[in-house]
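Need the bound structure for protoporphyrin IX containing FE, inputs here:
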Amino acid sequence: MLDVRAYRSWGVLALSAVVVQIILGGWVSTNYAALACSDFPLCHGRWLPDMEFYSAFTLHRELGMDASGNLLSLQALTAIHWTHRLWAVAVLLLVGTAAFKLARLRGLCVWGMFLGVLLLVQLGLGISNILFSLPLALAVAHNAGAALLLATLVVINFRLFNMR
Ligand code: HEM
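Answer from helper R.:
Posting the output first, comments after.
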């Protein structure tokens, strides 16, 4: 008999990873950090650029300012942007593994394949946003891709938790 519990764990992990990535992405655009690194895959020509995480992730502050009212530094904007990129790697591993496993599960294989394709499209859109300096159409598409990824994972989890 099929042990559906392992699939459920992967479904929950993938959904959680995407929720975190959506929060990080919202933080990027809210803080106008979209173009804080304009090169890819490096950022300012380095894998590990100069970054300042404390003011980047201080939640109670004016937009664009650090807690003492100074403009957010380039290092803080870089930290916000870079964290969204780094978490994208975790999303690729977790959602990619979930998609691969689901694609081999009877009853959910189409959803698994759809999830895998959606993941690759969304990663491609994120990278294109940087390479083409954030054209409006690509920024909107990246937003729509995130919503579709979230909705797909909610449906997959619903199906998994109703499966015996
Ligand atoms: C599956 C992975 C990803 C998800 C779910 C995701 C999700 C999001 C979301 C929800 C936003 C906020 C959009 C807005 O508020 O308008 C965002 C912004 C952004 N993401 Fe991603 N993202 C992913 C991967 C990536 C990758 C791989 C890159 C680049 C290497 C990237 C680059 C960006 C940039 C530059 C923005 C700012 C866009 C703007 O200000 O409109 N994303 N992301």
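Comments: Residues 74-102 form the longest helix (29 residues). The mean pLDDT is 96.
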